[in-house]
Specification:
By secondary structure, this protein is α/β, with parallel strands linked by helices. It has 14 helices and eleven strands. About 50% of the residues lie in helices and about 15% in strands. Helix 5 links the parallel strand 8 and strand 9.
Length: about 325
């Protein structure tokens, strides 16, 4: 049996994630019990404070203090609300405790923005991790030594687990179920909780926002020009000439400032506009392709897949499925 501890850090913590952890692991134990097997997870909760304020103004009383925890195998950190600096400042002592636990061989799973705690503790230095894409730019800036893989739904390295944003944490919970029980049990839980177990990328949900928190003004002007003229066929030579920068210098400075080559940035801007059109209009894929300056369907499809993770047709089909689910849900409930 895996001794599993839900950590409640200081600050506003996600109640829904605490409930999901409890419900899924309890469901696993119940399914195992029905088959005559031993439970897989022994759950408990610890906190730095006995009284904790969760999301939606709810107060949670936790009897066990983190320093009263004698032994555990797995710690799960739910998502916290607030800015990165506040979370890390309020939880300095908790970060030190996590470092000690990891040195004892305890596995630690951080759900969504809970990854901030592992990064702040220095446990993910030079390790792959993921989190909600909306805080990716800031984390890269503050912790450049961390290998953020924002396209991934979850990561697993040296007993440290992280998940992407939104409801992606459910995929990490399913992964932990499979790792500690079986693929069959994980599949059963995916059906019970209606989670797409094989989703492995959050790329279709990432909104591209070019890095602009840098001091290179010519590069920033080039970024703005690309974003305003995405319908045109743009080239590195054209931009270098317009902003009076040598081609090689522009490419070097652009990559350093934005973490993208000039061509990659142009492609990302065009694909973001194409995605918006797929979401908001009834235009055909061919029409949208032309709107963002592409004339070769194969090239457009390949770049879209590279940036978004799926093809334009698959992306629109995904949107249609989501809309169908929204429209049919009330009827199913009646």
């Amino acid at each position: 049996m895996k001794n599993t501890t839900i950590l409640i850090p200081k600050g506003e913590v996600s109640l829904s994630q605490i409930e999901s952890i409890t419900q899924m692991f309890t469901a696993v134990n119940e399914a195992l019990s029905e088959s005559g097997a031993e439970p897989a997870f022994q759950l408990e909760m610890v906190a730095f404070k006995h009284v904790n304020h969760l999301s939606n103004g709810i107060t949670l009383n936790v009897e066990k203090h983190i320093y009263d925890l004698e032994q555990t195998d797995l710690i799960i950190i739910p998502e916290m609300k607030g800015d990165i600096e506040t979370i890390l400042t309020e939880n300095k002592e908790v970060l030190g405790w996590l470092i000690v636990q990891q040195s004892k061989g305890v596995e630690i799973a951080a759900l969504s923005k809970g990854t901030i705690m592992l990064i702040g503790a220095g446990l993910l230095k030079n390790k792959q991790c993921t989190t909600h894409w909306m805080i990716g730019e800031e984390l890269k800036r503050k912790f450049p030594e961390t290998k953020l893989q924002l396209f991934k739904v979850l990561t697993d390295e040296d007993g440290l687990y992280t998940s992407a944003g939104g409801f992606s944490y459910l995929n990490l919970l399913l992964y932990l179920v499979e790792k500690n029980t079986s693929r069959e049990m994980s599949l059963l839980m995916s059906k019970i909780f209606e989670v797409d177990i094989d989703r492995n990328s959050q790329s279709p949900f990432i909104i591209f926002r070019g890095l602009k928190h840098h001091g290179d003004e010519p590069v920033k002007r080039a970024q703005e020009y690309i974003e305003e003229n995405y319908r045109d066929k743009l080239s590195v030579d054209q931009l270098a000439e317009k902003f009076l920068i040598g081609r090689r210098s522009l490419e070097r400075r652009f990559k350093k400032a934005t973490e993208n080559t000039v061509i990659e940035y142009i492609q990302r801007v065009k694909m973001e506009e194409a995605r918006k059109s797929l979401e908001a209009s009834q235009d055909t894929v061919h029409e949208i392709m032309a709107e963002v300056g592409y004339s070769d369907p194969k090239a457009f499809r390949e770049v879209f897949r590279k940036m978004v993770g799926i093809s334009p047709v698959e992306y629109r089909a995904m949107l249609n499925r989501q809309m169908t689910g929204l429209h049919t849900a009330p009827a199913e409930e009646q």
